[in-house]
Amino acid sequence: MNRRAFTLVELLVVIVILGLLLALLVPAVQHAWALARMTICRGNLHHIYQTFAVSSADSSRRVGGTTFFPTPEAWVGTAIRYSETSNILSCPEFSAEVVQGTAGQGTAGNPLSRLAYVHRVRNFQVPFDDPAHQGFGHMNLGTWTGSDARGEYIEIGLNDNSPITENYINTYESHDGIIRVYLDVGGETIAKLIKYSCGEYNCVLFDGKPLFVGPDDPAGVTDPASKMYGWMGPGTSKNGMEVDLGAGGTATCSYGMAKGAEQFGAAHHKILVMDYDKYIADPTISEMHDLLQTAARHSGQINVLFTDGSVLSFGPTEIDPLIPGHAYLWAP
Questions:
Q1: Residue 273 has pLDDT above 90, yes or no
Q2: Based on the domain organization, do 142 and 241 belong to the same domain?
């Protein structure tokens, strides 16, 4: 049985038709992905608003009509602390000009993700953000949030075979230890050893290196080949020690909070946070017009969270504070 092969013309016709179909399909797929990214970014803004509300409730401030938003310099840390993730700070369609975060504005994700507890006698290592050790277990790590005159912090409790409770955190009456991590002390993240009483060869690592190392420690404390590596010392010898974790974390933030937003009341329809690639959106600077144009990456739109909790999309010129008539959106 003879079969006629496709001619070159027929093949070219088929290829052209497939090319046309693909050309029609690609924009539709790209639009769908763009819409999905915009939806994720708007969802992040809603989540950020929720973290502000929880923060307000924790500090016993009313939401309705009352200022409850964090300062622009500290808002990223608040969002991370109350969501326990840095994912809500990342828009899946950010520009190459994303500004790198600093420790004072939120360490790389939750700072607990960079801390680990090592028990050399029993030969195990536990990351502080490991959910398997956040409850009752062999080595129980519990966390607590609070604040004092220096600022807001996360406290981590270390305890063998018994649950971490509010009483444990508040009274420090247990047998292993407590570490307090201040999220913003003059633009730096500070770890303080509140209580430590275990004399075994245990240590706390930050980015894989011993955290609490004192000038009187033996040389082996800083030698990775030594059993003494990272040793905390006998009993309470290092209680009260503070370590500067530094600035310049690797986290990025795709959003920016309006400068002065902590002065806004919750009921006012003012710009709070927006899709901006900066930690702070300063409406008084002359570069604001160009920065807004760069931020309009969702089909020329910018997602904006308002102080009443609504999230809307605008073109950059619709919210440009340097254009007459728009300043009211930014003013307290």
A1: yes
A2: yes
